[in-house]
Amino acid sequence: MTHRFKTRLEQAHGRGDYAALLNLIPYARLIGIECTRLGDELLFRLPANKDNIGNPILPALHGGVIAGFMELSAALHLLVFTGAPGIPKIIDFSLDYLRAGQFRDTYAKCQVWRQGRRVANVAITAWQSTAAEPIATARAHFKIEEPGRP
Amino acid sequence: MSENPLLERAKRFVSALRHCQVLGITAHQASEEGITLIMPYAPHLVGDPQSGVIHGGALTSLMDTACGMATLCVLPEFEVCPTLDLRVDYMHPATPHKPVYGFAQCYRVTTDVIFTRGFAYQDDPQQPIAHVVGTFMRMGKRLKGTQGLGSTIKGEQA
């Protein structure tokens, strides 16, 4: 499995197509996250999906799905840009909800503010209509596996 | 009916949330002290295929729901309370093939805001896998659609 995952990561890097890589992560398949490369940046997309609804009244996406989408985006962003040997492990995650997540496609972009030898700090912004009106902003710390360690 | 109306309300509430059904979350305990939800282990929750550990996002959904539902324990009548912010500190990864329990309580209720905290654990509540704090807005009872959901969780036919 480890070998397969590494091979998929290298292939995804080369082609700028991350679908096969995401397909190996069951939670990624569950919420339906997609990833595309725009120049040197990654754009994450969470297509509208009834299974992701939390508030049946509005209807609105479950806050936990938005959080999971942003957390997974940050981990994948690090995985792609740091060449870490495995999925980075989350240390903490802090999220501000700014607007209700409507039942429509959601996008996310990540910014690595600081990457040390052991820990990385990543900011994530999620939006639906326009990036200037985010529905949530988040910040996460991840433990980076040092290359060469199992 | 059960002798715990709060737990019955909690069960109906969680069953109205589609994503919680997808994650298999159910209400386990509820009292004025707080609420406990359970999320069983399932292969589709896995975030790291190399270890079989569930994704933090599933855990965050569990804890966001638990913190949000803790408001049911302190409010006399149902109010929609959107999450303002949430912070999760991961103590250690969840052990695969075991359910996760999510406990949450309200520690301060004001006219506009409710402060909640909680933790997720597996075998031992003394060894949490994650600590959580969350802040929720009170939107009052008159928000559009609130009464429909309020009736559903009371067990009335909406």
Automatic annotation (TrEMBL), chain A:
Which Pfam families does the UniProt record give? 4HBT
Q: Which InterPro entries match?
A: HotDog_dom_sf, Thioestr_dom
Q: Which GO terms describe its molecular function?
A: thiolester hydrolase activity
Which branch of life, at top level?
Answer: Bacteria
Q: Which residues form the Thioesterase domain?
A: 61-130
**Protein name per Swiss-Prot or TrEMBL:** Thioesterase
UniProtKB/TrEMBL annotation, chain B:
Q: Which InterPro entries match?
A: HotDog_dom_sf (IPR029069), PAAI_dom (IPR003736), Thioestr_dom (IPR006683)
The record ties this protein, via Pfam families, to: 4HBT
Name the keywords, alphabetized: Hydrolase
State whether keyword Hydrolase applies: yes
One GO location term (cellular component): cytosol
Start and end residues of each Thioesterase domain? 52-127
Please name the Gene3D superfamilies in this protein's record.
Hotdog Thioesterase
Q: Name one GO molecular function term.
A: 1,4-dihydroxy-2-naphthoyl-CoA thioesterase activity
Record flagged with keyword Hydrolase: yes
The record, for PANTHER family, names: 1,4-DIHYDROXY-2-NAPHTHOYL-COA THIOESTERASE 1, BLR7284 PROTEIN
Q: What is the protein name stated in its UniProt record?
A: Thioesterase
Tell me what organism the protein belongs to.
Pseudomonas extremorientalis
